[in-house]
Amino acid sequence: MTVTATERPKLVTILYATETGASEDVAGALSREAEAADLTVTCQDVADFDPEDLDTLDVLLFVTSTTGEGEVPYTAEEFFEAVESEDCPDLSGIRYSVLALGDSTYEQFCEAGKRLDRALATAGAVRIQDRVDCDVDYEDTAAQWRGSVLAKLIGEEAAKPVAEAEIAGSVERSPRYEPLTACVTENRILTAPGSTKATRHIALEFVDEPPAYAPGDALGLIAHNDDGVVDALLKALSFDPAIQVPSNGRMISVASALAESYEICALTPRFIEGWSKLASSPGLEALQSDDKARIAFMHANHVIDVIRQYPISGLSAEEFISLLRPLQPRLYSIASSQRVTAREVHLTVAPVEYELHGEARRGVATGQLVLRAPVGSQVQVYIQPNEHFRPPAPTTPIIMIGPGTGIAPFRGFLQERSCETNRGKAWLLFGERNREFDFLYREELEGYLSDGILTRLDTAFSRDGSEKVYVQHRIAEHADDIVAWIDAGAHIYICGDAGMANDVHDAIVQALARSKQLDAGGAENILNTMRRAKRYQRDVY
Length: 541
Ligand SMILES: Cc1cc2nc3c(=O)[nH]c(=O)nc-3n(C[C@H](O)[C@H](O)[C@H](O)COP(=O)(O)OP(=O)(O)OC[C@H]3O[C@@H](n4cnc5c(N)ncnc54)[C@H](O)[C@@H]3O)c2cc1C
Ligand SMILES: Cc1cc2nc3c(=O)[nH]c(=O)nc-3n(C[C@H](O)[C@H](O)[C@H](O)COP(=O)(O)O)c2cc1C
Hints:
Elements: E1 12-17, H1 22-36, E2 41-45, E3 59-65, H2 77-84, E4 95-101, H3 111-122, E5 126-127, E6 132-134, H4 139-154, H5 156-168, E7 180-189, E8 200-206, E9 218-221, H6 227-236, E10 244-247, E11 250-253, H7 254-261, H8 269-279, H9 282-287, H10 291-300, H11 303-309, H12 317-322, E12 330-333, H13 338-341, E13 344-349, E14 353-356, E15 359-362, H14 364-371, E16 378-384, E17 398-401, H15 408-418, E18 426-432, H16 435-438, H17 442-451, E19 456-461, H18 471-477, H19 479-487, E20 491-496, H20 498-516, H21 520-532, E21 536-540
Parallel strand pairs: 1-2, 1-3, 3-4, 4-5, 4-6, 17-18, 17-20, 18-19, 20-21
Antiparallel strand pairs: 7-8, 7-16, 8-13, 9-12, 9-16, 10-11, 14-15
Helix pairs in contact: 1-4, 4-5, 6-11, 18-20, 19-20, 20-21
Bound molecules: flavin-adenine dinucleotide (FAD) and flavin mononucleotide.
Flavin mononucleotide binds at residues 18-23, 65-70, 101-103, 106, 108-111, 136, 138, 541.
């Protein structure tokens, strides 16, 4: 049920659930606007909100992203458990609205926001504004939602000046990122010849004053598309590369716009819908009403493949650009500590390479880093802070679980600890395919082990034996030790693939359940308590 609010709220609670900061930015903007409208506001990370206080809320405005494959941001899991539980109290005293951030190329688009909206309504809360689902270019849609929500709370007339101030820029906006120039000083393959992978170590040195970064932060790379893909599009569409098109409020050549400003590989539902209308194609049209088929089509085709399969003549460059979405920066966990590398950041990058329609295809950012980022070249980057993935005090014991490129932040953590004289125990669980070829940073890690910076190193090489072994199997094997470390106050960190993180979580739950003779719920409670105390942190992608 959606109703129009009649009462001016006593307190507006804005909560956000974020993995990479966008929801926090939107919540911050909403908070500033609500304050400008003289509302009493509290804005906080859902991680810091006690679900026990749910039924005391007056107005709840919730901004949440979706992560993994349709999953809730890690820090919001407990809140979701509370609102989705059968024991959730009656929330009919709450007026609420949800803004869902997501990415329309994912099968479960904005799933966390959808779940939350459903759960709050089921618990009796009164929706004052319909949920809005945003794609990665969320800014305008989110601003509209903020305006509508404020209008519902204080009335259209009162909300108008706030909206006008926002348009004029007088309501302070937090810049998502300030790009900085960095020079590539190292770009080498970490895996040995014979490996099925070509994971890279990349070192970047800031050209100007280096920004401060902390262990756990990520680096955002402002990626550029491959010239070969740009040329293929220009040719297939018969565009003059010099034709001017609008991009970020200015006119630039279509060739530059395609290279720098737009996502030109991955398909989106919006592109398919637009192209289907222009091409009058029943095949594409049928995808509009079949979510599964559309997702499968999006995985099996890029923009260029659609253009080739469903050609259109007479399309203008501007029309084409209007079907594309802005090119998003790519994030990489920082694999260094500024206390050691000062002006540099290090990255551990797994190139994305595959074949489609008989052609070799590469990921946008990893393609750039592999093919067009030789030592001496420059890239545009920014620091993405990650407050939810900070190492504990140096004396606190720590368990780090980071297979594959998940090792990256832990290299930073270990460098940081190497600067300390008084250190707690540190246990690293690393996994990859083959010990011989894929033991990333092997010498460094073994050095840390012999120096006592790392107390214990367990590895799981999945393709070395007849049976596949992953880090979660090592956790099961060493369950008693894991529990003993937890009992001794260890903090647990998991980084890397989202599926791996779930398997590792289950393995830790089982270890705790067996050792403490609890059911799975009881073991989950231990991890929830650890999560609240910031003793259990995950950074997954
Ligand atoms: C917080 C965070 C930290 C991260 N840290 C790291 C890190 O330390 N190291 C690292 O390497 N990465 C990391 N990533 C992932 C990184 O941000 C990029 O997503 C990744 O490098 C791919 O980017 P890309 O531009 O090269 O590929 P994109 O151009 O984004 O292409 C990737 C897409 O290609 C498509 N694709 C892939 N394989 C196939 C296939 N076989 N068939 C069809 N389509 C396919 C899929 O649609 C996939 O989504 C991190 C991500 C996050 C969110
Ligand atoms: C690893 C990863 C997984 C994601 N999974 C989904 C998904 O399943 N569904 C979706 O709609 N969006 C997904 N997204 C997109 C994010 O929800 C979107 O980028 C959002 O703007 C991020 O907001 P945040 O910075 O507040 O986390 C994913 C993003 C990342 C990095």
